[in-house]
């Protein structure tokens, strides 16, 4: 049976089958046995399957490192499973000990295989092509013919022809041996070494890298320090002091929504204009970033992830003082940018001069529309008719409790809804530019302007070039190991009694599917053989 | 032509090529039905097979008396086979029209790889075109009913389940890497699929032989030997594997780095691309390992193909909202 032979596999097969039960031997022998098991092809295959299998839960169970929001949502919905999953590390499969165990064993197995293999290959590189077998006619392809040339001339011709066809060749005992395709094994080794390189690149990236998210309202700025991030994850060896000292201001944000047709409402393009300095002393530069076009700085890249609206809300308290004023980030909830947000007014004072905190919570509609059936909704994602609709609360916002609080939710534990005279909760509906009074002289709320915000991701993965180099080399090696065909050919010359020169040409492929017959034919023709007679293979001799 | 007209053209071309694939399938079924009457020992007339690979001189008079009904049936089978291939060529051409006009239907004009319907439309095209390209080289006439049947069924499922109207590309997809990444991924998918068909036939034939088949005259008897099936499976999958490596592990990460800021984020689609890669790596190793080559390796290849198609279609159904790759 003809099979492409993977030399690496061949090496492993040579060790196969290892004894299936450990012999009762000294620890040293036992270690040797375990090592041979680990570096055997069978175990390597099993480890590969385990690796594939172990990755599956990483796609089924939401992953903390991939989508933290979905993960916490899932955890809330499955209170019984969560602790079990937590123990098994199912929320961070790819950082878990058991996943690491599999790939580390696989890498050990790989190293245990390629190190001896490299030594063998190194020796074979310097070895001369193998001597011609005694009976060339037993090889898969064989031609024999007679010629009038002197044997030395034929051998010299054969050498020249082989060199042209990029064979390494040597002459020994009246025969030329040619060998080609040794790079197949080099490709094989390169592929396996490159896998280690990729692993190193990924490891460095995840140990020293970081990824942070920040929401910036247009007109506002950002300076790279930990306190400025809304969320931030980093590798265990990352040092926050190493954050690049860049800063930027989001000058403007452009978005085009498709207005007509069935794609109406889709964002066609969006981009943000940034003024940035790569360090406090560097000159100010301007750039535009959009999806697929990040800002690449020394030490970090800035990506535009998404966008939304930040209505300007002004709250005056019972004394008429401005207790809050500024843009409030409302997070988009659907494709039409109906958005949810809260306003926290910790410094409000009531009519009597006593502090009473206020909170507002509700929706923003960029293009406000209303029907009796659907209630309020946003008819279009662009800001054509912006409006806010919020419920108002009074009491304690819980900001002084010391517990960290999200700026996007209202802790209503110590808050009570502000009610209208008829006892119903007060809903503040404002079009842009409008203002409304709170009951009991608690003050006024004004919707006096609109900005947009951008969600940016700032991240750095230091050794990604190493990982990329690794995969590229792996691909190169792979191509070599799959498509280079190791091939050997021999030409033997003998002078017979009548003074004629008997030439034999034979070849052997170590992989199937190549045109070995063609190669041997060409060589024979080049050496002066006539056109090939049908059925030259000496069938009877073989039998 | 307006964009809408191109969209209509694309839809009609899909319907038309499905009909032609169906006719091609019928022709190939007729071919094999007629050939049942010819004993397997009579060599099939394949256009390029020079001599008899199995060692028997072609047309050995001992088993096929000249002028017998065997020979007549053999000729009829050949004719049906040629009709089938000709129809497949027509179908592939119409299929190509539907893919191209799908891209021209979008405003602005774009590559036709914006959603699952379009991916599947193109992947089936690659399978059919790949089969035609390799037809002569590997004497693939035995694969004809499988390929035409597969492409027909997949196209129908595509139209019935995945169809979506033409829309412009999302922002994230507007990148030259879309072309590079998707062309490579679809090419690999097509080649893996053809290899998988050979692996299925390998397993079926192996089982049939093990159960004492080998004397019949049906489709299985006319399949090439196990070695040849294994070789076709290996050659196509060994071609697909580096292409897949490039698509999933080089072009994908580079693009992801540009668009999302992380070159590898363990998104469900990425997880399964990785799984597919690992399983096919196992296949390449298994095929060269004592005790694994042959049957076990073919099964590994099919597991790999299952993960590939699950990733291609299944991820969008099961993890649609959780995947950044959900363009359905």
Q: Could you characterize the architecture of this molecule?
A:
The complex is a heterodimer of chains A (543) and B (328). Chain A is an alpha+beta fold and 543 residues long. Chain A has twelve helices and 24 strands. In chain A, strands 4, 6, 10, 11, 12, 21 and 22 form a seven-stranded antiparallel sheet that branches. In chain A, strands 13, 14, 15, 18, 19 and 20 form a six-stranded antiparallel sheet that branches. Chain A has a five-stranded antiparallel sheet with strand order 1-24-23-3-2, with helices on one face. The relative contact order of chain A is 0.14. The N terminus and C terminus of chain A are likely disordered. Chain B folds into two domains: 145 residues, no CATH class; 159 residues, no CATH class. Chain B is flat and about 65 Å long. The two termini of chain B are 27 Å apart. About 8% of the residues of chain B have low confidence. At the A-B interface, helix 1, helix 3, strand 8, strand 11 and helix 10 of A face helix 7 and helix 8 of B.
Question: What characteristics describe this protein?
Answer:
heterodimer; A: 543 residues; alpha+beta; TATA-Binding Protein; 4 domains; seven-stranded antiparallel sheet; 12 helices; elongated; disordered N terminus; disordered C terminus; B: 328 residues; mainly alpha; 2 domains; 9 helices
Secondary structure: number of strands of chain B: 0
Query: Which structural class fits the helix and strand makeup of chain B?
Result: mainly alpha
Number of helices of chain A: 12
Largest sheet of chain B: none
Radius of gyration of chain B equals 22 Å
Summed up, what is this model?
The complex is a heterodimer of chains A (543) and B (328). Chain A is of the alpha+beta class and 543 residues long.
